[in-house]
Amino acid sequence: MTVEPRRAVAIIGSGPSACYTAQALLKLRRDVEIVMFERLPVPYGLIRYGVAPDHVGTKAVTRQFDRLFTRSGVRFLGNVEVGRDVEFDAVRSAFDATVVATGLHADAELPLPGFDDERVIGAGRFMRILNQHPGDEISLPQLGSRVAVVGNGNVAIDVVRLLAKHETDFEGSDVHSPLLDAAAGGLRVIEVLGRAGIDDAKFTPSLLAELGRIDDVRVEAFGVDDSSLADTSTRSAQAVALAGLLDRPQPENPRVTVRLRLGVAPVALAQDGEILRLSLAGPGASEALAASTSAEPASIDVDSVITAVGFHRGDAHLLHALLGHEDDVFAAGWARRGPKGTIAESRAEGQTVAREVDAWLASAAHEPHDERAALLERLDESAVSFAEWSTIDEHEQRQAGPGRVRAKEQNTETLLRIARGRAEADSSDAHAEAGRASVQDPHPASNT
C-alpha cells in the first residue's frame, strides 16, 4: 500500500484570512503541514491592529485561532518577514503550495491640492497607532477642536465613534486612553464628509446606530432629504439607521457634535494660519456650510483631517508572484480581493482558497522539498513560536490597567524580550516609556 507523502503549505501572514484558510485546509486534509510566516512577533494582523480597539467582540475571534496553533502540524513563525529574513522564492520552493495573505498596509491618499499637510492622517495609520502597532509612532498628532473625517464607510464611522466616546465608554476594551485623550481631549466638532448620498453610503447601519449610545454627543445631518427619511416604504437600511439616530433626544449642550455631510467631496485643502480650509463640491456642499459665492466652492475650517478612503497594495515583492499566475501560489484576504469585505466574510473566502489549494495538491505530482527542514531550522533561531506569543499574551493581560483587558507592548525589542522570558523584571518600565503619549503639536508655542 502506497502512503501519500505529507504535503506542506506556507501561509504568509497571520491575520483572519490566513487563519480561516488554515482552518478550512485542515478540514480537507488532516495530514497537511502548515507553516505561517508573520513579520511581527505577534499574530492576528488586522484583528489585533486594524479592528477598532473598542470592538472587543470582533477581536474575540482570536480565541478560536489560538486553538488552530495548538494542533499538530501547524507552526507559527513570528518575527520572520518574507523578503527580509527569507526570500519569497526560497519559501515557495520549500513548500508544495504558498498562500499570500499579507493584507494591505498603506492608506490610499487623496490626490488633491494641500492633502500632503502634516495635519492630514490616514484612518489606517490612526487605527494602527491607537492599537499600538510596532513600528508606528507612539503618539497621535494633536487633532485640535474640529476634525474632518473624509469617507462614509465603516472605517470612517469607527474613527468617529472612537473620537466621540468618553473615557468611561472604553470599559472592557484595550484602548490606551492617554494616547487618545492627549490627541483628541479638546475635540468639539467632527465633520464627516461622504461623497455618496445616504442610500449609497458604505457604512453598516448598526455601526452608525452605535453613535446614538454615546452620552453628550449631538448628531446632525446635511445633504439628506427629510422626506426620504420619513418614507418607511422605500428608505434604505442606512436611511433607517440615520433616521433613528436623528430621532433620539439631542443634548442642548453637547460635549461633541458630529455633523454628517452627505453628497460632498473635498476638492482642495489650504492653510490659513493655523486653520485648514477644506473646499468642498457636490450636491450637498452648499447646505449649512460657510457662506460662499456661486463662483467659489463651499468650505469648512478644521484643525486636522483624517482620511478614510481605502488602502492601496503593499508588499509588491510578494504580490508580484501572484501577478505571474503561478499555479502553486494563491492569495487570500485583501491581497486577493482588495480592501473590502468583513472579517466574517473572510471565513467563507478562506474555505474557497482552501479548496483551491487542496485541488492543486491533489493534482500536482509530489516533489520532495529536502530544503524545508534546513530553512525552518535556520529561521527558528530568530523566530517567535506560538508558545512564545502566548507568553506575550499573558504578560499583556497581566499588565492591563483598571477597566482594560490588556496593555499592549508596542516596542518590538520589548516584545522579543518578553517572548524569550527575559523581560519580566523590566517590562513595566519599557511599557510605560513606549506608551507615553507625547503629543506632536504641529504649531508649538513660541518662546518669545
Write the layout of secondary structure elements.
Layout: E1 8-12, H1 16-28, E2 33-37, H2 45-49, H3 56-59, H4 62-69, E3 74-77, H5 88-94, E4 97-100, E5 106-107, E6 120-122, H6 123-130, E7 146-150, H7 154-164, H8 177-184, E8 189-194, H9 205-210, E9 217-222, H10 226-230, H11 237-247, E10 256-262, E11 265-272, E12 275-281, E13 298-302, E14 304-307, E15 311-312, H12 316-323, E16 329-331, H13 334-337, H14 343-363, H15 371-380, H16 386-398, H17 412-419, H18 427-435
Parallel strand pairs: 1-2, 1-4, 2-3, 4-16, 6-14, 7-8, 7-14, 8-10, 9-10
Antiparallel strand pairs: 5-15, 11-12, 12-13
Explained architecture:
By secondary structure, the protein is α/β, with parallel strands linked by helices. The chain has 2 domains: 8-104 and 313-384, 3-Layer(aba) Sandwich (Rossmann fold); 108-310, FAD/NAD(P)-binding domain (3-Layer(bba) Sandwich), CATH 3.50.50. It is 35% helix and 17% strand. A 6-stranded parallel beta sheet has the order 6-14-7-8-10-9. Strands 3-2-1-4-16 form a 5-stranded parallel beta sheet, sandwiched between helices. It has a 3-stranded antiparallel beta sheet with strand order 11-12-13, with no helix packed on it. The longest helix has 21 residues, at 343-363. The model is unreliable at 290-295, 424-432 and 434-448 (pLDDT under 50).
